[in-house]
Amino acid sequence: MEFLQELYDKWLVIKPYTDTFSFQAVIATSYLIALINSLRKALKEKEFFSNFITIANVCTNYLFTALMMEYALEYVKSHNSAASAQNVYLGFVIANSVMLFMMYKLHTTFSYKFNNLFFKVSKLFIILTLSHFIIWVKFVVLDLQQEFAQIHYVYSFIVLYISLVLSFIMLFPDVLRTKFGCIVTFSLPRDRNA
């Protein structure tokens, strides 16, 4: 447990001297590569338009939420207070909810078909949104900053895991048809052909 706490304190705790360049930049790069690859395939008509719409929405949402977090980190640096920037988690909840709605509307307007990637991304974003909401309630509503540190560890693991899985399934959407794709997206093997 101490090892997990040290990792958490070193890599994931926001402090007044936290550097704004982080592991998230690597994930953002993979999202950008996935978007460019999807656009290239969509223009050559080698990919479903549904996949392109889904990937474009995820990339846009990631860019927006990353900018929100960078702004929160800069705020923490300049004001030496992390407590006042904790409403950023509620901003993530709102941004993710709007993204899911917009992704659905874009699919119904332009694609008329919902691919497997759409459903997996939607499921992962619902889990991510609930995680953001739980951590916001803990920090802001209940004002529990240091208590129940296990929630911080679980939250951090969920956010990083889902970010990595999203980048992987957007780079390789065909993996969703395999058992491995079912495992990493929390799906039962029987619905991989749905």
From TrEMBL:
<feature type="transmembrane region" description="Helical">
    <location>
        <begin position="124"/>
        <end position="141"/>
    </location>
</feature>
<keyword id="KW-0472">Membrane</keyword>
<feature type="transmembrane region" description="Helical">
    <location>
        <begin position="88"/>
        <end position="104"/>
    </location>
</feature>
<feature type="transmembrane region" description="Helical">
    <location>
        <begin position="153"/>
        <end position="172"/>
    </location>
</feature>
<protein>
    <submittedName>
        <fullName>Uncharacterized protein</fullName>
    </submittedName>
</protein>
<keyword id="KW-1133">Transmembrane helix</keyword>
<keyword id="KW-0812">Transmembrane</keyword>
<feature type="transmembrane region" description="Helical">
    <location>
        <begin position="48"/>
        <end position="68"/>
    </location>
</feature>
<feature type="transmembrane region" description="Helical">
    <location>
        <begin position="20"/>
        <end position="36"/>
    </location>
</feature>
